Automatic annotation (TrEMBL):
It comes from the Bacteria. Mg(2+) binds at residue 107. This is Probable molybdenum cofactor guanylyltransferase. GO terms for molecular function: GTP binding; metal ion binding; molybdenum cofactor guanylyltransferase activity. The lineage of its organism: Bacteria, Bacillati, Bacillota, Bacilli, Bacillales. Its cofactor is Mg(2+). InterPro entries: MobA-like_NTP_Trfase, Molybde_CF_guanTrfase, Nucleotide-diphossugar_trans. Transfers a GMP moiety from GTP to Mo-molybdopterin (Mo-MPT) cofactor (Moco or molybdenum cofactor) to form Mo-molybdopterin guanine dinucleotide (Mo-MGD) cofactor. Gene3D superfamilies: Spore Coat Polysaccharide Biosynthesis Protein SpsA, Chain A. GO terms for cellular component: cytoplasm. It catalyses: Mo-molybdopterin + GTP + H(+) = Mo-molybdopterin guanine dinucleotide + diphosphate. It comes from Kroppenstedtia eburnea.
Length: 209
């Protein structure tokens, strides 16, 4: 693995890859991070699809490290219990040695390494704290680039009782990127029927993202 100051193949500084895997998966009824898709556990699928070029400093956000012991990557627990995905982002930003960190939820089966690199490249050219995609219908804050300096603002936000990601984005310098993006790249699996749909979609999904 490259050091935090080295370069990816496309010239981007090595970045952190933060996979949010601490959700309760109540609507799914099963741990989404451990769901198999095409014979591959979702969290491993995320790492593979997002690491097609270059190297990342990979971290998994979870309060149950035993579930991910075989991954061989740091599993980072929340410091703000009950803080939702922002607590996971905060804890991993505290741990990350990288200035730029791609944050992704663990239930996005068709994440794109190309979109990730586009967001990272944009984040590296400005003074934005967060760079997130917005596809015209909605913003996708759980697939975006968060600068490490966000951790202090995020800590204050959580200490003040803040929990909504959208509210936090209003408090920092956020860049919204309109795309265009590949079809299905932000499809997420919340319910069993979404999982079934993802399995069906996978049959026609080309390798590479």
């Amino acid at each position: 693995m490259q050091t935090p100051g080295s370069k990816m193949a496309d010239g981007i500084q090595t970045a952190g890859l933060i996979i949010l895997a601490g959700g309760r998966s109540r609507r799914m009824g099963r741990d989404k991070a451990l769901l198999p898709l095409a014979g591959e556990m979702m969290v491993m699928r995320m790492i593979r699809r997002l690491s097609l070029q270059g190297e990342w400093v990979v971290m998994v956000s979870s309060n149950q490290p035993e579930k991910f012991a075989e991954l061989g990557v740091p599993v980072v627990p929340d410091q703000f219990l009950g803080g939702g995905p922002l607590a996971g982002i905060h804890a991993c930003l505290q741990r990350s040695p990288c200035e730029l960190n791609l944050v992704t939820a663990c239930d996005l089966p068709f994440v794109s390494g190309e979109v990730a690199r586009q967001l990272l490249a944009l984040a590296g050219t400005g003074t934005w704290d967060v760079v997130v995609p917005a596809d015209g219908k909605r913003v996708h804050p759980l697939f975006g680039v968060y600068h490490r300096r966000c951790r202090r603002r995020l800590e204050s936000f959580l200490e003040g009782g803040g929990r909504r990601v959208g509210d936090f984005l209003k408090e920092v310098n956020t860049r919204y990127v309109s795309g265009p993006f590949p079809d299905g790249v932000f499809f997420n699996m919340n319910r069993p029927e979404d999982y079934c749909r993802a399995t069906a979609m996978e049959e026609g999904e080309p390798e590479g993202g």
